[in-house]
Structure formats: C-alpha cells, structure tokens
Write a structure and sequence with these properties.
This protein is α+β, with helices and mostly antiparallel strands and 120 residues long. It has a single domain, classed as Nucleotidyltransferase, domain 5 (2-Layer Sandwich), CATH 3.30.420. It is built from 3 helices and 4 strands, in the order H-E-E-E-H-E-H. The chain is globular. The model has no long low-confidence stretch (mean pLDDT 94).
Length: 120
C-alpha cells in the first residue's frame, strides 16, 4: 500500500511530465499551498531559474491579509505574481497545480493570475 506522500509525488510527477510535453517552451506557474500560506512562482525550466514569485508572506500583502490560508489571500497572491511576471516580460505560462485539485485556493490563485494578465 502506498502512503499519502508517495501518491502525492506520483500525481505531481505525472502532471509535470504532461506539462513538459505541452509547454512548448513556455514557463510554468507553479503553486504550493501549505496549511497556513500559499506560494506561487513562474519558473523557466529551460534556463532553470525563477522569473517571478509571490506568496502570502510578502511584505506588500501581509498587512492587508487576515490569514494566509484562505481564498482571498490566494487571489491576492495570484494578482501579485501575475503583475511581477508581466513586469519580467512573461505573458503566457503553463499552470502547474502540483498534486492539488483545481479547486478552492488553487483555483482562486489561477483566476486572479488570469485577471492580472497571464494567459494559460
């Protein structure tokens, strides 16, 4: 029987493999959510570097957020990472939800990133 962590790693690897095939050289918007915060970064896998990043722990967002673990904070992080990515010259990305379902905080972050100017 596989553990929860092994199953999560398998889902993540399966999704990353599919993304690599379909990316077409576009950077990926990777999402990580913990119990208390949410993090997002735009990663260029070809060069192996992060182009833009944001989290609910950023100094710009922290005073305005009640908690880092709700949909409102995920939306704020999505808008901020989109703003920073557009400033870095990135407008098209591939969305990497990791092993998480496209639901709740992950969905809120994705929709806010789309509103902020990223297309995926």
């Amino acid at each position: 029987m596989s553990t929860q962590q092994e199953l999560r790693n398998r889902r993540r690897a399966r999704l990353r493999f599919q993304l690599r095939r379909k990316a077409g050289g576009r950077p990926r918007l990777s999402v990580f959510r913990s119990g208390k915060n949410i993090y997002a970064q735009v990663i260029d896998d070809v060069r192996g570097c992060t182009l833009a990043a944001a989290s609910s722990l950023d100094k710009e967002l922290r005073p305005s957020l009640k908690s880092g673990a709700n949909k409102d904070s995920a939306g704020a992080v999505g808008k901020l990472v989109a703003q920073r990515a557009v400033a870095a010259g990135v407008s098209q990305v591939v969305f990497d939800r990791g092993s998480y379902l496209y639901h709740g905080r992950v969905k809120a972050l994705a929709e806010a990133a789309r509103e902020g100017g990223l297309s995926f």
